Automatic annotation (TrEMBL):
Keywords: Glycosidase, Hydrolase. Belongs to the glycosyl hydrolase 1 family. This is 6-phospho-beta-glucosidase. It is an enzyme of class 3 (hydrolase). The active site is at residue 377. The keyword ATP-binding does not apply. PANTHER family: 6-PHOSPHO-BETA-GLUCOSIDASE ASCB-RELATED, GLYCOSYL HYDROLASE. Its EC number is 3.2.1.86. The lineage of its organism: Bacteria, Bacillati, Bacillota, Erysipelotrichia, Erysipelotrichales. It comes from Breznakia pachnodae.
Length: 481
């Protein structure tokens, strides 16, 4: 009997507005957090002040600084050609995000920017023309900078109203075009990277944990309100949560290491537990009591969270890490990645390749929540080189994806409900963790470089035709060999 993935499986790719669109100040768009962020190039290559080693500047100074997201790969003006290439590969779905500051330039206005709304109308129409389902993240690290400066981001409860106003506008506008929504991106990095991952300002001398716990409550309330509003406006839509779930192993079988690793994983479960189970878990309550933290709530908050839970769990998976009791080396995806696992290969950026870890995560999350799981990020960043024949022979990327897809299939055979696989990223674009172009993920090469030069010309890598065949055969090309 031939093996195959489910007929409903959503094959495709994933992007983020701030990493691909460019056009940072075009057609009324306001500056976002990442528009103030420099890359790891030029004079800032050795600075590691904040934001995954990238530097946040108070005032945008393009004369002296390079801001990678300002131009990115100019998807804003190339989206038709790029989507045509995605369609050629046979994509069933494309995940991307809406840039909040393109719709509300400052974030706290009453009326939206029509030009911004028109852009996403055009993008979604182009996707639907080819039968590609839009999967949309409402907020993906790109909060309007005005909300950061004036309110401190999500540390202020006023952000709930601004976010819901934004959600109402896009739900009404795109109710006939978008059926899959996600509230935030990788929110479970809020505690270890408040500004970048959670758009939360923590001022010098403050208790970061206290500020981020309070901010997480506002984010939970906003997500619940957004979910209720989405169901009211788009009854057939699905609202999910999105987290980073690259798994963590204990570095030894010492019970102290095992339990410390378990507790570290709970720091990440905290977000999915509230989003999906609709209540604060006991372990988070204990930590707050231990730290003397009391979350300020309003009447009805807990009921809202309980009644409006996520309908699917979307997540990113790139690698696994290891942890030891007392270790301070574990950071998020842009920092030091725990203790090296001797059983795994490592990329040039220090990420250890672990396909079986993806099967582990899928089974772990399915057993914990019993709701559909959606892999909306998985990929290999590599400094691709153009060969003498003019082609990028990225067999390393093909092998990476193949091994992960095989483990996804194994998880499906285990009984896990997997909605789909959206590869990050189908086209080269700015790396979130480093701000670099040379850390390339795509099936499609973009002639853009870390110094800002390039023609933006697109060309297919060897992996393009390989992934096209995988989708065309619903996985038979790799399962039945």
């Amino acid at each position: 009997m031939n093996k195959t993935f489910p007929e409903t499986f959503l094959w495709g790719g994933a992007l983020a507005a701030n990493q691909c669109e460019g056009a940072w100040d075009v057609d009324g768009k306001g500056p976002s957090l990442l528009d103030h962020t420099t890359g790891l190039t030029g004079k800032y290559k050795d600075l590691h002040e904040m934001n995954h080693g990238r530097r946040l500047t108070e005032v945008i100074d393009t004369a002296n600084n390079y801001y990678p997201c300002h131009d990115a790969i100019d998807f804003y003006h190339h989206y038709k050609d790029d989507i045509k290439l995605f369609a050629e590969m046979g994509f069933k779905a494309l995940r991307t995000s809406i840039n909040w500051s393109r719709i509300f330039p400052k974030g706290d206005e009453d009326k939206p920017n029509e030009k911004g709304l028109e852009f996403y109308d055009n993008v979604f129409d182009e996707l639907l023309k080819y039968g590609i389902e839009p999967v949309i993240t409402i907020s993906h690290f790109e909060m309007p900078m005005h909300l950061i400066k004036k309110y401190g981001g999500w540390r202020d409860r006023k952000l709930i109203d601004f976010y819901i106003n934004y959600c109402g506008v896009i739900f009404h506008r795109y109710k006939e075009k978008v059926k899959y929504w996600m509230t935030y991106n990788e929110l479970n990095h809020l505690h270890d990277n408040p500004l970048h991952a959670g758009n939360v300002v923590v001022y010098e001398g403050e208790n970061s944990l206290e500020i981020t716990y309070q901010a997480s409550h506002y984010l939970f309330v906003a997500a619940a309100k957004a979910t209720a509003l989405c169901h009211e406006i788009i009854p057939d839509a699905k609202m999910g949560c999105m987290l980073s779930l690259s798994t963590i192993y204990s570095s030894t079988c010492d019970p102290k290491d095992e339990f410390a690793t378990f507790q570290l994983k709970q720091d990440h479960y905290y977000f999915s537990d509230v989003f999906i189970r609709g209540k604060y878990p006991g372990y988070s309550k204990r930590e707050m009591e231990k730290e003397g933290i009391t979350i300020k709530m309003e009447d009805g908050d807990l009921e809202l969270i309980k009644e409006n839970t996520a309908e699917f769990l979307a997540f990113s998976y790139y690698r696994s890490t290891t942890h030891k009791a007392g270790s301070t080396t574990f950071k998020d995806s842009g920092g030091v990645l725990g203790i090296k696992n001797p059983y795994l290969d490592t990329t040039a950026w220090g990420w250890q390749i672990d396909p079986i870890g993806l099967r582990y995560v899928l089974n772990e999350m399915w057993d914990r929540y019993q709701i559909p799981l959606f892999i909306v990020e998985n990929g290999l960043g590599f400094e691709d080189k153009i060969s003498e024949d003019g082609v990028i022979h990225d067999d390393y990327r093909i092998d990476y994806i193949k091994q992960h897809l095989l483990e996804i299939y194994n998880a499906i055979e285990d009984g896990v409900d997997v909605m789909g696989y959206l590869y990050w990223a189908p086209i080269d674009m700015i790396s979130n963790s480093t701000g670099q172009m040379k850390k390339r993920y795509g099936f499609i090469y973009v002639d853009k470089h870390d110094d800002g030069t390039g023609t933006y010309e697109r060309s297919k890598k060897e992996s393009f035709e390989w992934y096209k065949e995988v989708i065309h055969t619903a996985g038979k090309s790799l399962l039945n060999k």
